[in-house]
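Training component of the fellowship. As part of building independent skills, the fellow (R.M.) carried out the full modelling exercise for a liganded target. The chosen ligand was pyridoxal-5'-phosphate. The inputs are recorded below so that the supervisory panel can assess the work.
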Amino acid sequence: MERQYPCVKIHTARLGQNAREVVSRCHRLGVSVCGVIKGCGGLPEVARLFREVGADEIGTSRLEQVAACREAGIDGPYLLLRVPGLTELPGVVALCETSLQSERATLDALEQECARQGKEHSVIIMADLGDLREGFWDKEEMVACCVHVERDLPHVQLKGVGVNLGCYGSIKPTPEKMEDLLTIARDVESRIGRKLAVVSGGATSSYVLVHDGNMPEGINHLRIGEGILLAKDLQVDWGITDMNYLRMDTFTLHGEVLEIRRKPSYPQGEFAIDAFGHKPVYVDKGPQIRALIGFGRADVGDVESLICCEAGMTVIGGSSDHCIVDATACRPLQVGDVVEFHLCYSHMLYATGRSDVRFQFVAD
Ligand SMILES: *Cc1c(COP(=O)(O)O)cnc(C)c1O
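Fellow's submitted model of the complex:
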């Protein structure tokens, strides 16, 4: 028996519009686009759509998602985004054309695995320019590692260098950071005596430089997920106002009203802790019409940040399997009504990662 709700609708025309707009703007500046599918659970339909509108390759952090896409007949090429663990290398070589890398020991092991499988594999070596996640901190060490790959690892092709910004350290991609990466690239090129094919300037946050037209020449690759899938981070969190060529209603969440009742807004009795071990602060707003919606934190993570599409409705809170909304100011609701929410990246990530949330591809 298949559950009908919660249901995530994926609006393919809106998603296609986002992908086309981003890809065409990047291509105009000579920037190729890796369309990143990890934010939507690696859905093969999304990978197919990305390729159809001109994304140059498909990227994800997880090998299982690459395998599922290949099984669905989407040929790639595929870029593995999370620097792999040693145990993942057989899958990396078997499934991906290219991977991001940041450890010499892993690259040496990758050479061994390539030799074992009789295959070649390309790598983009990552620099850490201040965001403090993956990448070489010492740039001399990084250049030496690139030279090592070029000279000593016959099955591993040095495709280029890259950086990631704005993920852990919330560091802003600026033309200066891009120039720092280009300096490293030129250093590597002069040491190996040839040009690098790829200088990868980052993720969605770096797309701002393409949008503003100040991406330094030489940065020729971006890896973009959120900016196509939801396009909310830049427009809402960064406050960029002239990006309305991108739709933010590409993924919508639909849930069923389970209970609707007038109740106090302030819990009654002695306070302990909630289901997640927290001591929330409750505000007494007097009696409310409260509705229970049939999904919860297990489906979407944080419920408070969901965006209600019903005029007048706000999310109060929730638990693993319930979302509680204040329906006092919205249209009269009844049991069985379906209400719609817009999603943030984390909601999309969690919901698409569950096998018991239904997905529906719709044409609009
Ligand atoms: C997730 C990820 C991306 C894509 O990030 P978005 O913000 O979704 O564009 C790019 N590069 C790396 C290394 C990543 O892990």
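The panel noted the following from the submitted structure. The pocket of pyridoxal-5'-phosphate is lined by residues 36, 38-39, 61, 81-82, 100, 164, 203-204, 223-227 (CB under 6 Å). The longest strand covers residues 251-263.
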